[in-house]
């Protein structure tokens, strides 16, 4: 068990800021994902997704939990949007569940499922909330996985067709679109490490899925561009972590860090810019050539209007002779004796600043938005139904301060979306980690706005100033795992 020290923040964190410091056009919002919140997993002719199958696997999820009900958003979306409106949140990023719209992944549309997103978009607009739609957030239809899923090159066309189904129905009202959510995670965790759906552990599967996802990222963008009004804004999102060597100045750790950066931060970014895969720093990526077809290099780039930057932590990298091909591993926060969250991620708000700088350094980079950032800490509901989440509020304040720091340094970052609006099903970790601005009692589905949520409301209303909290005694320091 680690505790959050008073010296929680790096000295470069701006100690004070308020809403006007970001300018009138800065986009503020919250993010969610269909599988993590909707529930109603087989309602109204919805098909199975790979996550519906994966959670039923033996010991796949901590506590053997499922997202069959989750936050029951499919039924409770009007009241959740009312709460979002009450908090003054102007932008809502959500995803559509592919198998709710196309139960078999291709073929006939399930109008009941598509009607749900129709109502959701209209519900947002009626409340003055702008919808931001992610086409794919990890929940591939099981029927497509049974044909190879992301390892089958046909997935490029499947994704493009699905994107156009959404665009044709919702494109007259949804102006902001994202093709993929964090392809590095769903390819790496799902096809190499086996800890996410579909649960594969194969370098070949990872490389095939990587190339097909990179192609789908671009082809999905082109499919949307063809189906949407010219005014629509099309982006995609990337997971990222600021990487530093375990022993600065040690050549083998420095080289390991560069290899890890090529995989974790550059693998999906550079092909979309026409730079190809970063094989010079990560030679194992040369093996991806076996999955490339003539003309693929010309199909990989796409001129996105924006990138979504999704950052939660930094990682420290050391050389490892026990990890073939990459020759590197990550040194965890617990081992390093630094504060960390329920997810085991180091509390390091400066990571966001560094990744915004890194992505903006590409000459062809589009404008940036932070489309996910947040922290999971244990919540305690008081007897009077309040959640005083000091650590989460402090973390959000510090990270938003790092966004302002980046803007002041000339980085074209134009928005910040907190992850997440409500607590939700956190994939392989089940329901224990809580990221939300709003607490959910999963037994009763009661919603309680946390102190961090009320602070975010005040910030967006121009009534709050961010300050760096200090803790006068050890007893006041929130414990984190």
UniProtKB/TrEMBL annotation:
Transmembrane segments: none
Keywords noted in UniProt: Carbohydrate metabolism, Cellulose degradation, Glycosidase, Hydrolase, Polysaccharide degradation
Protein EC: 3.2.1.21
Family annotation (Pfam families): Glyco_hydro_1
Gene Ontology molecular-function annotations: beta-galactosidase activity
Catalytic activity: Hydrolysis of terminal, non-reducing beta-D-glucosyl residues with release of beta-D-glucose
Record bears the keyword Hydrolase: yes
Highest taxon, organism lineage: Bacteria
Annotated active site: 372 (nucleophile)
Protein family according to the UniProt entry: Belongs to the glycosyl hydrolase 1 family.
Protein name in the entry: Beta-glucosidase
